[in-house]
Write a structure and sequence with these properties.
By secondary structure, the protein is α/β, with parallel strands linked by helices. Helix content is about 55%, strand content about 10%. Helix 3 (about 120-130) packs across helix 9. It is globular and about 70 Å long. It comes from Sphaeramia orbicularis (orbiculate cardinalfish).
Length: about 375
């Protein structure tokens, strides 16, 4: 009889535990039902963000125009990663550092309104930024200059949705660059009472904002920024943002990693044999672990910077000119001879290059993925 009661008590206890776990799961799922991409089960601990943990925090820094995003990256990392006068970059970059003791990866891509970049290059860099941020960013930090909000800046939310998908806005926070001392200035109160267009811009990002100093040596608000990011992520169920294109990026990087490992298998095997000649027992295991981690990081970086998805993007951009050239060569080559094919191939390349430049006054981010 006692055994039956004990068994019943155990089953009841287990049942209650399961109910609590499923209740938590479905409450998180319910909060994220409008975005099928943002919830990631905590069973995937290497991918899931847990506030206060040692997990790498991936931050996608986005700039509209000008130097604000580069000021922000310097402020987050606590060092001058970008020179003070940097206002644009042509290639995506990823930097590692610490924010208030938390390990962070910061990804910077060309500004949304960067003019001196072709459409094909812009699309490739957008894809590269996603490859460098796989499996997805915990937060999008959208940087503006508090003293210089332009009409383009007002349209940034619309372009963010086109670049990353409409659900990305739930993971966004506005970061406002400020020139001067932030301590005791009440600058955030000023933001709340400032011009309507700045308030409206912040509202489009769900009212989340933070003011940071352009002086990267000012570390007074690091802890507050980290807490704001962690609270935002926790409110979304503790996961990171993803989408079909981020998943495509991850698949492409893994495929490229596999190709590189196969290509370098003989080199890696030779290195292991050399280690076995020099070390024994515990020291050998440590050396092998160090070598394996170093090679894995090197291969991951190469795969993120160059893979089939990125090469396809570039090839499609260049392909327009080649197709036009081939058609023109076929049409006129019969009249002007073989020289006509060469001549019109060159013309076609120029036409294709022109088509890959954004037209004056056009939306540079339209139709990107």
């Amino acid at each position: 009889m006692y055994g039956v009661q004990l068994s019943g008590y155990f089953c009841s206890s287990l049942k209650n535990k399961l109910i609590r776990k499923f209740s938590l799961f479905f409450s998180c799922l319910k909060r994220n039902k409008s975005n099928t991409c943002t919830f990631h089960s905590t069973t995937k601990s290497s991918f899931c963000f847990i506030p206060g943990s040692a997990t790498e925090l991936r931050l996608m820094v986005v700039g509209s125009s000008g130097p604000s995003q580069f000021h922000l990256t310097n402020a987050i990392l606590g060092r001058e990663e970008f020179p003070k006068d940097t206002a644009r970059i042509s290639s995506t970059r990823r930097n590692m550092g610490d924010l208030a003791g938390r390990r962070v990866a910061v990804i910077n891509a060309p500004n949304i309104y960067e003019k001196d970049i072709s459409k094909a290059k812009r699309k490739m860099e957008l894809r590269r930024s996603k490859c460098l941020c796989i499996p997805g960013p915990h937060a999008f930090l959208v940087a503006f200059d508090i003293e210089n909000i332009s009409l383009n800046d007002i349209s940034t939310p619309k372009l963010m949705k086109k670049r990353f998908g409409r659900h990305c806005m739930r993971h966004c926070m506005v970061l406002l660059a400020f020139e001067g001392n932030l301590e005791g200035s009440g600058v955030e109160d000023r933001v709340r009472k400032t011009e309507w267009y700045l308030r409206e811009l912040i509202e489009k990002f769900n009212g989340r904002f933070h003011v940071f100093s352009k002086n990267w040596r000012d570390r007074s608000r690091d802890r507050e920024l980290l807490q704001k990011i962690e609270r935002m992520v926790a409110s979304l169920g503790g996961g990171f943002f993803s989408s079909r294109t981020f998943q495509k990026a991850e698949e492409s990087v893994k495929k490229e990693e596999k190709r590189i490992r196969k290509q370098r298998s003989a080199e890696m095997e030779k290195a292991w044999m050399e280690l076995e000649k020099q070390y024994i027992a515990e020291e050998l295991r440590n050396q092998k672990d160090t070598y394996t981690a170093s090679i894995a990081a090197e291969i991951r970086t190469k795969a993120q910077m160059d893979n089939s998805w990125l090469r396809t993007s570039l090839a499609r951009g260049l392909g327009t000119g080649l197709v036009v050239g081939a058609v023109m060569g076929a049409l006129f080559g019969s009249i002007e001879g073989p020289g006509g094919m060469v001549l019109y191939g060159i013309i076609g390349g120029a036409v294709g290059g022109g088509q890959n430049r954004p037209a004056k006054g056009s939306n540079p981010a339209r139709g990107m993925n």
